[in-house]
Structure formats: structure tokens, C-alpha cells
Input
Amino acid sequence: MAAIVRLSSVCRRGVKPLFYQSTLLARPLVVPHKYQEQPYQLTARIHSSQALHAGSGSKAASLHWTGERVVSVLLLALGPAAYFSPSPFIDYSLAAALTLHGHWGIGQVLTDYVHGDAKIKMANTGLFLLSTVTFAGLCYFNYNDVGICKAIALLWSK
Output
């Protein structure tokens, strides 16, 4: 038999204790047994981690999140600027913003899916190498060829 449990029945004081207390939380859940007339209790144990505390005092995560949003908005603004007034400044700004945006995005994928200290170090090293080669390649393309803005315009013109 399926049971629908509201969050308020699992955590009577709301969601806050899940993130701000490091104690073991246990809430009973009453489930009727198929062959018994009396329901019996199941106990769910929820562990909260010290790493998930919001009050750690560090603003690094908040500043990083703000930086990601600034780069995303900058990329939105660079699109029309590259179309209406292509210049070397816009080309190099696109190279830096695209590389940084890609670096942060792939970094989040690695954070989510790569586990183990050695694997994390190898993945981060590979990410830094990829980002460095990407930025160097875009700068080389901007300096020795037509640039990002004109290359995209040439692709759209055909």
C-alpha cells in the first residue's frame, strides 16, 4: 500500500532543522501491515552534514555564483555588440567570456559526477588544460585570422 507523507509530518519544525542542525533526525511513519489490523511504525533517519551549513562565514560561493551570472549576462550583451560593431576588443572579450563560461560549466559537471580524490585531481587538471588551450586557440584565431565576430558572420552569410 502506498503512503503519501507531507514534509511537515517528517520534519515538524519545517525544513530548517535539516540544514542547520547536525543531530540525527528520526520521525515515525505509521504504515498499516497487510496481515495485521494494527498499524506499525517505520522510523526514517535523516543525517545532516556539517558541510551543508549555510552559516560557515565564507562568501566565496556567493561571489562565485554572482560571477557566473555576470558572465552569463555579459555573453548576452556581447552577442548584439559583436553583430553591430565587430572589433578586436569584442573578439577578445568573447574569447575570455566563452572560455570562462565553459570552464565553470564543465567544472560543475565534474563536481557532480567525479568522485575520489585522485579522479577529482585528474579531472580538474584536464579541465584547466582544456580551458587554457581553448583560450589560447581563440586568441590565436583572433590575432591570426578574421576573429570570432567575423567568423560567425561568415558562417551565417552562406
Observations:
- Confidence is low (pLDDT under 50) at residues 1-26.
- The first strand starts at residue 25 and ends at 31.
- The CA atoms of residues 19 and 53 lie 6 Å apart.
- The helical segments are 7-10, 16-20, 60-84, 88-113, 117-144, 148-157.
